[in-house]
Amino acid sequence: MSREDTERGGGVKSRGNNSNSYLSSTSTYPIEDTEAHYRTSWLVPMFVVANVAVFIVVMCINNCPKHLHRRLEGKCVARFLGRFSFEPLKDNPLFGPSSATLERLGALDWTKVVDKHQGWRLITCIWLHAGIIHLLANMLSLVFIGIRLEQQFGFVRIGVVYLLSGFGGSVLSSLFIRNNISVGASGALFGLLGAMLSELITNWSIYTNKAAALLTLLVIIGINLAIGILPHVDNFAHIGGFLSGFLLGFVLLPRPQYGWLERRNVPSGVGVKSKYRAHQYALWLVSVILLIVG
């Protein structure tokens, strides 16, 4: 590529088996997030379709044969695809468009965000990918991570976590990466990982195998942060997305404590447990303050 891209790596994996289920013993508990009451996931599949569609449009606009013919250098990869063929591997080893095309269509560029007031790039960059390998890695990760979370918590909460985490990753990336462009959904994906960790912490009492759940998640997070050390991977987007998702998880993903009943389902005179534990309220408050201040 003409400018060395900083691509947000798509090395996130699935959350693994953490056996998260409520141990309710009566149907009067108004718990909607048990294994038996999973919601239908539609938003995450729509995100996947949108990312794939955007990549196709980007490749169409890139039109490798046309601009390479003008430059008289190199050969497009998979030339049988016509205008959808990929840039020469020496320019883009991930089988994708040129950095100039990505920059023109909304890649994160600190200079343009700050000097030219193009703040919209903080959002558009999370829908762009540097190549088909980059796209496939991120979309597979999104399917494995996002669908289960959406089934448990619904499309509104998971959609908010995904988008705000992507924005948070872009903000941190733009503060530290100033000489290269950055694209990819990895900041948003790390936000989902962060939300999974805070969800585990705030709903600690309902997990049947706490140590295994925590260890599995920490290993996944550690591996993906290590991947960020590799060249062309934007770890600042990973960290920014993870921190945003971690705080949002405390705000959006707490679940009622075991044994809580709605007051309308309880006879008069019978004591009722608080819907949430004290630590859940405390974590919620601290996270809201940090999100506002940050």
From TrEMBL:
For this UniProt record, give its keywords in alphabetical order, as a comma-separated list.
Answer: Hydrolase, Membrane, Protease, Serine protease, Transmembrane, Transmembrane helix
UniProt-listed InterPro entries: Peptidase_S54_rhomboid-like, Peptidase_S54_rhomboid_dom, Rhomboid-like_sf
CC terms in the record's Gene Ontology section: Golgi apparatus; membrane
Renumbered to this chain, the Basic and acidic residues biased-composition regions fall at 1-10
Q: Can the keyword Zinc be found in this entry's annotation? A: no
Biological process terms from the Gene Ontology for this record are: proteolysis
Every Peptidase S54 rhomboid domain range = 117-254
Q: Where is this region: Disordered?
A: 1-21
- Its principal location? membrane
Q: Name one GO molecular function term.
A: serine-type endopeptidase activity
TM regions (residue ranges): 42-61, 126-149, 155-177, 189-206, 212-230, 237-256
The record's subcellular locations are: Membrane
Q: Which Pfam families match?
A: Rhomboid
EC numbers = 3.4.21.105
The topology of this chain with respect to the membrane is: Multi-pass membrane protein
Catalyzed chemical reaction(s): Cleaves type-1 transmembrane domains using a catalytic dyad composed of serine and histidine that are contributed by different transmembrane domains
Q: Which SUPFAM superfamilies match?
A: Rhomboid-like
Asked if the Swiss-Prot or TrEMBL record annotates the protein with the keyword Transmembrane helix, the reply is yes
Q: What does this protein do?
A: Serine protease involved in intramembrane proteolysis.
Q: Which PANTHER family match?
A: RHOMBOID-LIKE PROTEIN 3 (PTHR22936:SF86), RHOMBOID-RELATED (PTHR22936)
Family listed: Belongs to the peptidase S54 family.
The name this protein carries in UniProt is: RHOMBOID-like protein
UniProt organism field: Populus deltoides (Eastern poplar)
